[in-house]
Amino acid sequence: MPKKKKSSILDRVDLNRQLKDKDQYLSLLSELQDRMRRIQTSCYFNHNRVILVFEGWDASGKGGAIRRLREKLDPRGYRVRPIAKPESWEQGDHYLKRFWTKLPPPGAITIFDRSWYGRVLVERVEKLASDKAWNRAYREINDFEKLLTDDGVIIIKLFMHISQDEQLHRFAERLDNPDKNWKLTAEDLRNRERAVDYLEAYEDMLSKTDTDYAPWNIIEAEHKWFARTRVLSKVVNKLEDQLPARPPRLTEAEILAAKQQLGISEGK
């Protein structure tokens, strides 16, 4: 087995962080989801475009976090884009081309469950791209995200981090659950065997594509309740900082005129 590379970023992540109990989880989750719902309304009325990028280890909880994030959202205002390998007709194109058609329109949120970072992750590790191609991709990705943010798009990138012991535990849980064992694929098993290579790829990705306009947010995902609320907290706080606090409201004069037109008397 190759010698493990000493990481400089993920080794510093405190995977022991967790919430006190289920009551704290449910209370915090509800509060954050309500704030997220208001943010979506503001995003729609102010024609903002938001991209949320999820990357992370297999079984790190990306799907569960996305599910809680969108639970109270209007389905007309967001889109989840699960990214798998390119289709046969896409494989001759530049790898970023297929993502241009998946970007959000004004007033919408697009959630990428994996993303264009596949070029420097799975394509690097599995040698689906040449060394020259994936090394060049860090600059290309940074330029791509800079182009989007310069055009007003808000990008929030989240990396879900768990230990190898916790990943093994979650794989075992899936195998023992008839409703979930389909989620454990041959690719998951192969990826686990290449964990050292993926760790090196993750470290390079986090260090080389962490920019002031699209920084990485590392989520301590060892404990699911903490991870889900942590994701929501990161997204909500960043969007509240960058979006108008609320959708436009009618003036008192507009409300009075509308009531008069509708025959609604004051006080009703």
Care to count the β-strands?
5
By DSSP (H or I, 4+ residues per run), the number of helices equals 10
N- and C-termini, Cα separation: 75 Å
Order of helices and strands: HEHEHEHHEHHHEHH
Helices and strands, with pairings:
Blueprint (H helix, E strand, L loop, with lengths): L21 H24 L3 E8 L5 H8 L8 E5 L14 H4 L7 E6 L8 H4 L5 H20 L3 E8 L2 H13 L9 H8 L1 H14 L7 E5 L3 H19 L9 H11 L6
Parallel strand pairs: 1-3, 1-4, 2-3, 4-5
Structural features, described:
By secondary structure, the protein is an alpha/beta fold. It is 47% helix and 12% strand. The protein has helices at 22-45, 62-69, 97-100, 122-125, 131-150, 164-176, 186-193, 195-208, 224-242, 252-262, and strands at 49-56, 78-82, 108-113, 154-161, 216-220. Helix 1 (22-45) packs parallel to helix 9 and helix 2 (62-69) crosses helix 9 (224-242). The radius of gyration is 21 Å and the shape is globular. The relative contact order is 0.20.
